[in-house]
Amino acid sequence: MASAQAVQEAAITGEKKKLWGGRFTGATDPLMEKFNESLPFDKRMWREDIRGSQAYAKALARAGVLTAEEAEQIVEGLGKVELEWEAGTFKIVSGDEDIHTANERRLTELIGSVGGKLHTGRSRNDQVATDTRLWLYGALQDTRGYLADLIKTAIDRAELDVDVIMPGFTHLQPAQAVRWSHWLLGHAAAWQRDDMRLRDLMPRVATLPLGSGALAGNPFGVDRQFIARELGFIGGVCPNSMDAVSDRDYVLDTLYFVAVHMAHLSRWAEDLIIYSSGLFKFVQCSDAYATGSSLMPQKKNPDALELIRGKAGRCQGNLAGLLAVMKGAPTTYNKDFQEAWQLMFDSVDTANDCIRIATGVLSTIRINPDRMLAGLSPDMLATDLAEYLVRKGVPFRETHHISGAAVKMAEDRGTTLFDLTVADLKTIHPLFEDDVLEVWDYNRSAEMRDTEGGASKRSVLEQAQKLKRYLGAEGL
Ligand code: ARG
């Protein structure tokens, strides 16, 4: 640690005045300076920080703390800071600890000491919670749009290929004949739940902490409802100033939403990875979302899908990480909370990327109906055979055994159910008649499942219609 002492001494000279510097006489260890700063990642909220400050300046004017001209100067000055960020000319200087200090420092350089009135009654505690909520609300609106595109793509492809029959699996063992579109809309159903989760958490994100001060509230009577309206906080204002600076549930809710949605995308991706393998060949990813092997010329790897599956793991870690950061923190603000932002940015960015990549994969994937048909086998109709007798009044528990006996008979002969004659079947049960041969039809099997949610064409198309109605009602 000798070097730490050396850097500490080196730091004594040329120390800039800090925004919170009043009672501090010693210089900060440069390593501590880096350790403490959040600007490298929170600077992406420059726009939200400026919008929050402009609304706050107006509220201060309405409360009589600033004159109209002072508020005007501040709002305009902030507009100039905004232009600098937009043009890429904003210069970060040492001592710019986070986006809040950086913007205020620049504002004061531009408009002089009146800039120092902006922070009256405000703390970075209510400021950072406001900025991040504003940022998140905007980012999640994008997420909702991307998710709607993904669901629409699933609907389109389901309708287009509604006649394609595919083996459905349980335990990854071929189970019953379903439709490709049924499988696809099954995933879309999970994505719809994700969208509902997202819709429900958005007003909780867009609830205003500003006007809570450091923890005890605002002593200058700013109108918090006014600020909420100015900033488009549809959830109103946080009801308790101590909770307002303490609460990171809006980030946890988001990380949970992302973790669950990514788990859904990951399972969808996993199915397609299996279906695209050389042993299945049910689907083929387009070149746009696959890569080759540096060694094996024949390989085409579903990298996009594998990356989605991998990133789902990281997003789960982000949720677990923030829960661990929060659980022991004493009430109100603690610097631990600064750890939330990288997790938040990472999860939201990852979700937004993955949803768009998934949409690209799904809209360009080629399906191979012949291979899907080839994946079906007569034993997958054993349940249908049992159901045949159920319709003739035999209790299902019995028909299950009877059908099992037919499967065994075929197996013993080294053939399939399709090769058993009606006479063969009659030896197992007298109620088998000529029409039993109609059972050996995969399409019929899917069509029989015509209840809401089932595999029949009518039912699958109805599922697509319901999803469309949902999106329409949500304005998506
Ligand atoms: N960069 C800080 C954060 O993200 C801002 C709040 C700082 N507040 C404070 N009391 N030091 O948490």
TrEMBL record:
Pathway: Amino-acid biosynthesis; L-arginine biosynthesis; L-arginine from L-ornithine and carbamoyl phosphate: step 3/3
GO MF: argininosuccinate lyase activity
Gene3D superfamilies in alphabetical order: Fumarase/aspartase (C-terminal domain) (1.10.40.30), Fumarase/aspartase (Central domain) (1.20.200.10), Fumarase/aspartase (N-terminal domain) (1.10.275.10)
Keywords from the named record: Amino-acid biosynthesis, Lyase
Occurrences of domain Argininosuccinate lyase C-terminal (ranges): 380-445
PROSITE patterns assigned to the protein according to its UniProt record, in alphabetical order: FUMARATE_LYASES (PS00163)
InterPro entries in the record: Arg_succ_lyase_C (IPR029419), Argininosuccinate_lyase (IPR009049), Fumarase/histidase_N (IPR024083), Fumarate_lyase_CS (IPR020557), Fumarate_lyase_fam (IPR000362), Fumarate_lyase_N (IPR022761), L-Aspartase-like (IPR008948)
GO cellular component: cytosol
Pfam families from the UniProt entry: ASL_C2, Lyase_1
GO biological process: L-arginine biosynthetic process via ornithine
EC numbers: 4.3.2.1
Keyword Lipid biosynthesis among record annotations: no
Record domain Fumarate lyase N-terminal: where: 22-317
NCBIfam families per record: argH
Family to which this protein belongs: Belongs to the lyase 1 family. Argininosuccinate lyase subfamily.
Protein name (Swiss-Prot/TrEMBL): Argininosuccinate lyase
Species whose genome carries this gene: Coccomyxa subellipsoidea (strain C-169) (Green microalga)
